[in-house]
Design a protein that fits this description.
Structural class: mainly alpha
Radius of gyration: 31 Å
Distance between the termini: 101 Å
Helix content: 55-70%
Largest sheet: none
Strand content: under 5%
Number of helices: 6
Length: about 150
């Protein structure tokens, strides 16, 4: 009994002492799941009134498909880049070079390692007489993939 009282006497003060507050641990910052999205340029919708109705409808269909692809929840940067780039090709084919350029720039921002968008931007800039900028775009395309564009 005496041993029991001695044991209680030794442990009771520590059992009644309030526990020290837990030390605040600094948690590491969360790791982002995906790299941040680059700042993209707004793509204007050009006036299509001057085009034949069938051509204007085709461009509108491409615009809708592109907007759907960009809004898709699971779309990767590569997929979005492809959507912008292909839309740029459609705009360029119909002479809407200002809007096409914005699309190519966005495609490059989303997938800067894709040689083809640098190449198409170079073609557009060359078409516009902006030869120095075109040369830079072509050089970048060749740096990324010396075999692009493939021979026909």
């Amino acid at each position: 009994m005496r041993n029991l009282l001695l044991l209680l006497a030794l442990t009771l003060p520590t059992a009644l002492t309030p526990a020290a507050p837990p030390q605040a641990t600094q948690e590491p910052p969360p790791i982002p799941l995906a790299p941040p999205t680059p700042e993209l340029l707004p793509v204007p919708h050009p006036d299509l009134e001057a085009f034949e109705p069938q051509v204007a409808d085709q461009i509108r269909q491409y615009q809708e498909l592109t907007e759907e692809a960009l809004a898709e929840a699971g779309a990767t940067a590569g997929q979005k880049s492809g959507a912008y780039g292909e839309m740029g090709r459609v705009y360029q084919a119909y002479g809407l070079t200002g809007t096409a350029e914005v699309c190519y720039v966005n495609a490059i921002k989303l997938a800067p390692q894709q040689a083809r968008w640098h190449y198409y931007l170079g073609l557009l800039l060359q078409q516009e007489g902006r030869f120095e900028e075109a040369g830079e775009a072509f050089r970048r395309s060749l740096e990324l993939d010396p075999r692009y564009p493939p021979p026909y």
